[in-house]
Amino acid sequence: MKSEKTISFEKHKEIGMICKILNVRLLHKAVEISNSEKTKKEGRKKAYHYYKADKALSEFKNHMEEIMFLEYPKESSNNIYYGERPDDFEDKT
Question: Could you give the CA distance from residue 61 to residue 69 in angstroms, rounded to a whole number?
Answer without folding.
Answer: 12
